Structures are given as structure tokens and as C-alpha cells.
Amino acid sequence: MIWGGGAMLLVAAAAPAGPSTEPEAPAAVVIATSRGTRAVPVSTERGHPALPADELSILLPMSTRWGVDGWITVDFGGQAFRFLLNAPIFEFRNRIIHVVGGAYMHRDSLFVPLQWLAEYVPRTFREAYRYDPLAARFEEVGMTPVASRVSQPPSSGSFGAAVEDAPAAARSLGLKRKHRVVVDAGHGGGDSGTLGGNLVEKNLALAISSLLQEELERRGIEAVLTRTTDVLIPWSRRAPRCRDDCDLFVSIHVNALERAPGYRNIGGLETYFFDYRRQNAPDRLEQRENSSLRYQPQEDRISDDPVTTILSDLEENEYMRESAQLADLVREYAGRAHPNGSRKVVQRNFQVLRWATRPAILVETGYSTNRRDAEFLSSREGRRRLARGIADGIVQYLLRYETMTNQ
Ligand SMILES: [Zn+2]
What CATH fold (topology level) applies to the domain 168-405? Predict the structure, then answer.
């Protein structure tokens, strides 16, 4: 797993002893994001709980700018919150917000009120962050397995971000604008892909891709298929369908293993993104997925020209991080729907992803050589559950992407 995961640091929110009848402040707030987890100590020296801004900015998309006349701007996720030092107010979107206690300087550090982080940030980025007062935990949505959260309507807070373009279904998920996704059904025509029992990869890939298109459209996301029939599309004409107005590319596949001791025991879903820098010899899976090279037109074959290589490398690196995050979220959400769960996100040199100019992943939805996977993939209900899981993972990615880019 590339992002998040690992053991979560759990810190008991011990409250300081005192005669106050006010709700007691936690000793620390746990910040849990895909970049890591850390406990940030709460200060109460000014009579209200506050947090050191520099420690928050280690894990959160946050920075501070000094203004004039005692104002300081805290940029969070592209939104500007202006605090007047030592006053119980801040300004946001031309409105003055009153809080119990304000921001202040202490020993050269800026402290921001816990109330701001706990109430106003989750209200502003309602599908990206939440605060749990009982656990004193501020976390990215999707960090904890709450599968139903994605279908909850957004709360109607006064800080709701402006919703303009997104269709109603997308708005109900918290998406602020229209999104477009290209879904690629792997293989096709003379290229059957893998075979396991009576399961043929190209047919399953098309069936799953069609359901994924439906599930994305139900979520208000425009979804385009690279193929709708049993035809072979060259690699070079798959990922490039996702261009400037397209958010991401997802290629759907089914894995199978060759006969070897225990090969039927291997199952589960995997997600991959492209790492052009990976110089190792191709492994079995790469060879198999890339073996449709013989079906590709000559101009699609890989160039060894160093200039082409460098340009491609730079382009790929631009979306490496996004692709990794997308791969991890799809793995997490689709893995929950899968009888054999999911396996780790891996960087691979799949040729279909090499042509991507936007964030792109490849999903191996399971192993047709594994009995549970085969039963799951060959049932329409199984494929439907899988498509829902992949769509939910994509929605989670788009929500984060909107928050980080403020689009
Ligand atoms: Zn394949």
C-alpha cells in the first residue's frame, strides 16, 4: 500500500483535571491523513484549546501568511481563513465568524483555535475531513472504513462550498463540479487476455466496465467506454481518450495464474499505476498484459529514442502521485466488495498506462484461476458489487482532488 495504511497511532484523549464545568479540552488531537498520523498537543494557556499551526501543517494542506494590522492568513486546502491575533474571530469568505477563543502567538509559534479545526474546517471541506470529538481525532474521510459515508447527503452548513456545475447525483456525494472518466475494457477481438476455466478476460472486462460506467453515471460522473463490443483497440488509442477535460483513466482486467504449486490459492483484487522509471526486467504479469503487443500496430511499439523517453518520464511523473492515490482508494473500496479482499498497490510498466496523460490506473479485478474469485466474477451480482466498489473509490479520489486543487 502506497498511501496511508500501517498501524494507526491511537492516543487516548486524556482531559486535564480542573474544576471547570466547560467541556474539557483533550490533551492532544490526533491528525490522521493519507500522509500519516500524528498527535498534536492541545494548549490551553489562553483559556481555550488551541493547536500549534506549524505542527498541523506537517500533515495537512495548510500554510500561514502574515498580513498587516495583526491579521494572519491561514491557507487550508486553497481556502483562506484570516485570523485577527488575540481576538475571538476569524474572517472567511467576507464574513466574520465568532469563536470561543482566537488565534495567538506564543513563543514564536502561531496557535489556531481547536474550534476552527474541529468545526469550520470539516464544514468547509465536508467530504474530505471530519472531526470526532469523542476520540479527539481529525481525519481525512476514507481513512476509517465507513462505507456508508459516501452515500450520505452533505450537511447543510453555512460554509457549504459553492455548487455550480455538478449534476444532482454528484452534488449529493459532495462533488462540486462535473467529472469525466474513461473506462477501458481490457483486451478484445483477437486478443482474449487471460483464460481461467471457462472465463475469458476480454468478456469479463467488458461486462465489468459496462457496469462501472452505469455506477459512475448514477453518481453523476460522465463515463466513457473505450470499447462497447468485442473489438481490439490499440493501446495508443485507449488512455489518450482521457485528455484535458477528463479526470482519470481506469483500465479493467482479470488476472489468471499459470499452473504451479498452489496457484489456485491466489486471489483478490489488485490495482496498479505506471512507473516509467522502473528499470527491472518485466515480470510475468507485465509480460502477459503486454503480450498483446503482437496485436498492436507498428507505430504503437515502444520507442527507444532517449528524447521520447525523457519527455514521457516527465509527463508520467506529473501524475504519479495522483495515480498512486487513485490506485490506493480504488483498492480500498473495491477490496471491501471482494470475497478475497485486495492485495497491495503496485507500480508496474503496463503499456496501456504508458500512453496516459492524466491520472491512470489498471485494476486486476481478480484471478479467474481462483475458485472464489471466479464465482464472484462470473455472477452478475458479483460484478455489480465490484463496479460499485470501484466507483466509490473513484468518487473518494475526486473528492480529495477537488479539495486539494480547490476546483
Ligand atoms: Zn489484462
Answer: Aminopeptidase (3.40.630)
